[in-house]
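Work through this protein:
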Amino acid sequence: MPIRLRDIAQDLNLSTMTISKVLRGQTDVSAETKARVMKRVRELNYRPNIAARGLRTGQTSSIGIVVPRLGGAFIPVLVEALTEVFRRDGYSLIVGCADGDAENEERESELHLSRQVEALLFCVREDAADIPQPLKNSSVPVVLIGHRPARINLLSVGLREEEVGSLAATHLLACRSRRIAYMRGRRTAVADQRVTGFREALRDRNIPLREEWLVELDSEESEFAAAYIGVRKMMQSAPRPDGIVCSSDLAAAGCCSALQKAGFTVPEQVQIIGAGNSPEICEPFGLTSIDLSAAELGRRAARMTLRLIREADDASLRSMTLSPSLVVRTSTRAPS
């Protein structure tokens, strides 16, 4: 049987109200009584029933988040940053994974709300044109992370996606690449924005883009395998690219493997840059990569959420977008 508040009260011949005051840190209890209560609490290994307290107070000290998937480098870093900020304020983060499915997103959102979370964060899928209905009608604060679909007015913290493509192209140009290909991901709003940034960076420097070098990776293959196959074909034609931007670090690793297998050297003959800055992929291949600011997105989203919990109609709060950053390794040369 779990230890209850009334058990401690009976043991010490005190009221449950007194025990509750001590556990809440209230000051209108004598030091001697506090010491007696805390000694017995430790002896019995008592833990407050948070669910019951939540029913009484309407405060569960919990915040929910729905993520598309648990894999990759972005989500774990994001969740770690969120947890760090929330923990300092006494909140726990409950993670629900939708496995990339819109129905699961709605189900996980409903589950969080039924748990009486005090706020809900939602990571928007790259291909999402809408968000789950429960988020639109939520009675608790909602913050979106990632690109915000059109006509959705909820507060959001996102990335300047065009800068991902622009930053990658600009770096390769600075490293003296002039024939630059792009291994892009499947067609999503986010991927399209990154391609736009890539195109504009080349156009601003009067560098032509060969359309056959803008390769959409086959969604039936893994990113690694699709990029491997795509690069092998690309390097059999003339002229060959001397720089390749990839939609992900996994695709960039596939490019590196294909080039090395075909006898090309990286970065001397072909420079490679990925996106995501995933250490377990980037470090073995020495991949230069675009960091997608997952930790800072998490910290900003957490602080915004806490402000909404304290004051839901805070008129000073605004959606925000952050810039990505470049992490240089050995798959690109030193800029000239």
Q: What stands out?
A: Residues 83 and 234 are 44 Å apart (CA to CA). The chain has a mean pLDDT of 91. The chain has three domains: 5-48, 60-160+294-323, 161-292.
